Amino acid sequence: MLSALPVLSPLGRRRALQGAAAALVVFGLLLWWLVPFGQSSPSGKLTLSTGSHSGVYQRYGVLLKDALARDMPDVAVGLRTSEGSQENLARVASGEADFTIATADAVAKYKRDGLAGADRLRGCARLYDDYVQLVVPKDSPIESVHDLRGRSVGVGQDGSGIRLVADRLMKAAGIDPAEDISALPSGINVAPGQLERGTIDAFFWSGGLPTNTVQDLSERFRVRLVPLEAALVAKLHAAGDPTSYYRSAVMPADAYPQAQGGLPVKTVAVANLLVTTDRMSTAQTEGFTRTVINSRDRIGNSVHPAQLVDLRTAVYTDPLPLHEGARRYYRSVKP
Predict the structure, then answer these.
(1) CA separation for the pair 182, 153 (Å, rounded)
(2) Pairing relation of β-strands 152-154 and 202-207?
(3) Helix (H, G, I), strand (E, B) or coil at 278
(4) Mean per-residue pLDDT, 57-61
């Protein structure tokens, strides 16, 4: 004969219900932890627009692609070379590329000019600085930007960031790029060879340190870097946005040992930004930004210590607002 089931008192029933509720809460938390709803790993294809084949943008892109393959294995990343910041921004704004690198002054100009898609641009990280490099033969009489008057000068290709800064620096020095020099649209791929052959007297370049092509040139042909004085930066700042993004800087003595003779060189620098648009998903942007920051030491040490990304300043992407995915990443690592 079956024994009768025990009858719980009202207090016992209440405690039993409380215990069951607690068990359900614990079970729910475990389920939430084990099954990350809405947090699936990013997947798909992404295109990163970089720069010239021999520039630091491209080298940085190759190293970043390897890091992304480890961190986001379900995302296929393709690289596209370009003429530089202006072309990069146009590609991202139009949807031809998903992410890119561009200088802050080029971004400010793109926005100021109201070009297509400018309002959709978003920042992910402030990266390393570009350093302006004015390269001349070792025995050249050119000692400053003012001395370029009447000379043949490689000023960079249309659509490049260096074309912007070269024109601005010469104007700050009282030189009209259209009248006072013979300006050649020579990019970093051809300008060193032209200087070596004597076709041009000088060329401008703006990039990370060291740029392989400039380094190779310095090792086979006697060149030096012309100092760019702080007075030029003061004049650029006086002109207002977008030239307010330039700053005085010093190229470390070991950037180009053969060209610098063991001495630092005064110059002008401008920050590079990792750029996307508001079309990019939060998950992909968060993952992309995380990889950029997590790989900063490895990439920086593979290029030059000057290319290290500083986590303390990476969040400052002025003149662009932060993408929500990047914002989510920075919040996750905030102490």
Answers:
(1) 6
(2) parallel
(3) coil
(4) 86
Q: pLDDT tens-digit profile of 97-139?
A: 999 999 999 999 999 999 999 999 999 999 988 999 999 999 9
The answer to which of 27-31, 43-47, 142-146, 299-303 has the lowest mean pLDDT is: 27-31
| pLDDT of the residue at 248 | 96
Q: Given pLDDT bands bounded at 50, 70 and 90, which one contains residue 335?
A: low
- According to DSSP, the β-strands at 44-49 and 75-80 are parallel
Q: What percent of the chain has pLDDT over 90?
A: 67
Q: Could you give the 3-state DSSP secondary structure of residue 134? A: strand
Of the two residues 202 and 27, the one the predictor is more confident about is 202
Which runs of consecutive H residues, i.e. helices, occur in 153-229? 161-172, 191-197, 212-220
Other Cβ atoms within 10 Å of 135 Cβ, number: 25
Tell me how far apart the alpha carbons of residues 61 and 310 are, in angstroms, rounded to a whole number: 18
CB atoms within 10 A of CB 89: 30
CB 276 within 8 A of CB 156: no
Give the 3-state secondary structure of residue 136: strand
4 φ/ψ angles, rounded to the nearest 5 degrees: -70, 145
CA nearest to 147, candidates 170, 131, 179, 178: 170
Q: What are phi and psi of 80, to 5 degrees?
A: -130, 125
Beta strands in the chain (DSSP E): 44-49, 75-80, 99-103, 121-137, 152-154, 182-184, 202-207, 223-225, 246-251, 265-277
Q: Would you say the C-alpha torsion 317, 319, 325, 330 has a positive or negative sign?
A: positive
pLDDT, mean of residues 49-65? 87
Whole-angstrom Cα distance, residue 228 to residue 270? 13
**3-class SS at 277?**
strand
Amino acid (1-letter code) at residue 133: Q
pLDDT-based confidence at 299, cuts 50/70/90? confident
